[in-house]
Amino acid sequence: MSAADSQSKRSRFAIDLTPLTKYPDFRNLWASGLITYLGSMITYVAVPFQIKEMTNSYIAVGISGVVEIVPLILFGLYGGVLADYVDRKKMVWATEFASLVLVAILLVNSLLPNPNLILIYVVIGLFAAVNGLQRPSADAILPRLVGHADLPAASALMSLRWQLGVIIGPTIGGILISSFSISIGYIADIATFFISLAFLTRVRNVPASPEAEKPSLAGLIEGVRYAFSRQDLLGTYLIDLAAMFFAMPIALFPFWADQLGAPWALGFLYAAGTVGSVVVTLTSGWTKHYRFHGRAVIWAAIGWGGAIALAGLSNSLILVLLFLALAGAADMVSALFRGTIWNQTIPDELRGRLAGIELLSYSIGPLAGQMRAASMAAVTTLNFSVTFGGVLCILSVAILAIFLPKFRKYDAETNEFAVQMRKIRAADEKTA
Asked: What are the structural domains of the chain?
C-alpha cells in the first residue's frame, strides 16, 4: 500500500474536526460543554457514593435514578416546546446557571454534621427538571450553528466532549473524593460551571424559527404525533429505551467495585464504557459514508446487550472493564446514527419538540434501568442482575427490529425526509 493510500484510509476513519475550525459559535459551544461535563461527572460520582456511604443500600442508590423520571418527563417535554419558541442559546445559559445553584446546595448539605438524604433526592429531581429544560435547546441548536453536510461530524464532536468528560471527570472525582472529601468534589464542579458560562456568552444568540408557535399543549401534541407518525424516528426511541432499560447497571457500580475487591477502581468502572465510546468517536469518519443508519442502530444495541451480559459473567476487574468498554463502543455507534437521523430529517420548527422526546428516550431508559438493576440485584445477585439484563436487551431489540421494517431499512440517501431536509437546508445555506 502506498503512502497516499495509507493516508487516504486514515482520513476516511479519523474524526472530522471541520466544524471546530469552520464555525466559531460551535467551537465555543463545544468548549462550554466539555468543561461542564468534566465537573458534572465529578458530581455524578459523588452523589451515589455519598448515598452509599450514608445508607449502604442498593435500593437507596437506585432511588436516586427513580426520582429523576417524573421531572425529566414533564420538563423534558415542556423544554422541547420552549426550544422551538425561545432563544436556544439563552435557554442553555440560564439552565447552566441553575445547575450551578443546585450543586451549591449539595455542597452546603455535604458540610453539615448529618447530611440530609431527602434533600439529596430533592436536588436530584431538580437537576432532572433543569436537564429536561436544557437538553432540547442544546440538541436543537446544532443545525442552526453548523451546515447540513457537517452535521454528522458535529454530532461526533459533541459526543467526544461528553466522552472526555465522562472519562476524565469520574477519575478526577474519584481522586478528590477518596483523597479529600465529597465536598471538595462539589466545589470542583461549581468552578467548572463558571468557566462553562463564560464560553457560552461567546456563542451567538439563536432565536426561534419564524414558523414557531407559542408553547402550548396543542404544539406538544403536534410534535408527539409527528414523532409517532414516522417509524424511522420511532425506531430510534424504542430501540434505545429497550437497550438502556434492560442493560444499564450503573447503580451497581459502587457495590461492584467492592465485590471485585477494588473499591479504588470505582472511577474506572464509570469511565470504562466511555473509553470504548471515544475509540469509536475518534474513528468515526466512516459514519459519513455509511447509509443504513437504522441497521447500524439495531446491531449496535444488540452488541451493547451482549457486552453487558459478558461483563456480568466476569469476576475479573480487567475483564469487567474490557466488556464495559466494548459496551460503550457499541452504544456510541448507536448514538452517532440516531443523532444523524434526528438532525438530518426533522424540520427546524419541530426540532425542539422532537429533541424533548429524544431526551426522554435516551434518559428514561437508563434511569429506569438503574432501578431495574438495583432491584434485581437486591433479590438475586449483582452478577445475575447484570447478565440477565444483557440477555433481555438482546431479545427485546431483536423483536423490535422485526416489527419496525421501515427503521430497519432506513437509507440516508433515499429516505424521503432526509432528501427533503437536504434540499431545504441547501437552499437556506445559499441565501445565508
From this structure: 18-431 (1.20.1250.20)
Q: Are 327 and 279 in contact (CB under 8 A)?
A: no
Tell me the CA distances in angstroms from 276 to 10, 134, 330, one per residue in order. Answer: 19, 27, 8
Q: What region, left, alpha or beta, does residue 411 occupy, with left being phi > 0 and alpha being psi -120 to 50 degrees? A: beta
User: What's the rounded Cα separation, in Å, for the pair 123 and 71?
Assistant: 11
CA distances (Å), origin 374, targets 62, 109, 301, 384: 6, 25, 21, 11
pLDDT at 3 > cutoff 60: no
Residue 430 has pLDDT above 70, yes or no: no
Q: Is 80 exceeded by the pLDDT of residue 429? A: no
Residue tagged 447478565 (cell numbers): 387
Helices 317-345, 348-379: inter-axial angle, 10-degree rounding: 160
User: What is the pLDDT averaged over residues 272-299?
Assistant: 86
* Cβ(160)–Cβ(335) below 8 Å: no
Phi, psi for 181 (deg, rounded to 5) = -165, 165
State the Cα–Cα distance between residues 289 and 13, nearest whole angstrom.
10
Alpha helices in 115-181 (DSSP H): 117-140, 142-145, 151-179
Angstrom distance (rounded) from CA 262 to CA 87: 47
Query: Hey, what's the cell of 169?
Result: 471527570
Higher pLDDT, 51 or 100: 100
Handedness of CA 278, 283, 289, 291 (dihedral sign): negative
Residue 247 has pLDDT above 90, yes or no: yes
Asked whether 28 and 200 are in contact (CB, 8 A), the reply is yes
Task: Using the structure block, give the residue that is written with the C-alpha cell 426522554.
Answer: 360
Q: What is the pTM of this model?
A: 0.72
Cβ neighbors of 282 (< 8 A, separation 6 or more) are 14, 15, 160
Say how far apart CA 86 and CA 95 lie, in whole Å: 13
- Which amino acid, one-letter code, is at 162? W
The C-alpha atoms of residue 217 and residue 234 are separated, in whole angstroms, by 21
What is the rounded CA–CA span in Å between residue 189 and residue 185? 6
